[in-house]
Each structure stands twice: as structure tokens, then as C-alpha cells.
Amino acid sequence: MYSQRRRMFYAAAIVVFLAVFLPETTAVRYMVGGGSFWASGVNYTIWTQDKHFYNGDWLFFVYDRNQYNVLEVNETDYINCNEANFRHNWTRGAGRDVVPLNVTRDYYFISGHGFCYGGTKLAIHVENPPPPSLPANSSIQLAPSGQRIIPVIGLVVVLFFWPCRWR
């Protein structure tokens, strides 16, 4: 009985800790090219114009696996459509590849076999997500981070030592 209660208190402490300290984020999975997918004749510069790519988002490449591939390259190889020095080959063989955008930086992707020259290339900039915003007419004030930490530490200490009374 004691160990079950203690586990419940530890679980509650972990949930409270995660709820307070982990930021709320919503990752987006972008299907590259929209309905046109990863193929020649698509202007990926226009496709990216109305999008903001954030750390934690995903790119979903859908393509004909017998023709195209997904190669991550540097900027120079992107400009010159050079597939020989790729950084990473994201092609997994099924024609449906997912690339996690987990670093804030510029990403460059091309398709080899000459398709890059037909426009099958993508350049994006990944940035950190913006901080959560309050509603426009909200009167809520956020406490400085130091003021949030003290109550949470107190709660964790209470939850950690309180089960000792049941021994």
C-alpha cells in the first residue's frame, strides 16, 4: 500500500514538473510540394513562401521511388545541383520519407539523377518557435521564471517527504 501511494506521488510530481517546465509546442508535418509532391516542374521557392519552419517540425517527401531521391546537401551543392557530396541521404526506398527539422539552421535538399536541374530542390530556414502569446485583451501577467520555480520546488519537496509519514 505504501509503495503504491509513493508511486502515485512521484507520478504526480513528474506530471506537475513537466506541465510547468515544458513549453507548449505543436510540431507541423509539411508535405513537400503540397499536392504536387516531390517532383520536377514544381517551384518549391513559391511553395515555401507562406510557411514558417520551426525546430521540431517535419518534412514529408512523397515521390516516385524509381525516379527521385532526397539528398540533403550544403548551399553550394544546392546551387550547383551537385549530388556527389551529399550530407545525408534521406531516401529509404518507399518513396515516402520523413525528415525531422530538429536543428535551427538552413536546410538544402535536392533530388539526384539530374532532377535537381528540373527544379526538384528545396531550401528552407528553420528557426526556434516563437514564445506563446497571451490573448490580445488579457490582463494576465506572467510571473518571472524565478517566482515560478520556488512553488514547484516546494511542491516536489512536499511530495517527496510526505510519504515518509506512512512508514
Description:
This protein is α/β, with parallel strands linked by helices. It is 29% helix and 20% strand. The protein contains four helices and eight strands; from the N terminus they run H-E-H-E-E-E-H-E-E-E-E-H. It has a five-stranded mixed sheet. A three-stranded mixed sheet has the order 1-3-6, with no helix packed on it. Helix 1 runs antiparallel to helix 4. The longest helix has 20 residues, at 2-21. It is globular and about 65 Å long. Residues 145-149 have low confidence and may be disordered.
Keywords:
single chain; 3-stranded mixed beta sheet; 167 residues; 20% strand; alpha/beta; 5-stranded mixed beta sheet
What is the residue-mean pLDDT, rounded to a whole number? 81
Order of helices and strands: HEHEEEHEEEEH
Helical percent range?
Answer: 25-40%
Strand percent estimate: 15-25%
Number of strands: 8
C-alpha Rg, in Å?
Answer: 24 Å
Structural class per helix/strand content?
alpha/beta
Strand adjacency order, main sheet: 2-8-7-4-5
Main β sheet profile: 5 strands, mixed
Uncertain regions spanning at least 5 consecutive residues? 145-149
Number of helices: 4
* Measured distance between first and last alpha carbons: 10 Å
- How does the overall form come out from the CA principal axes? globular
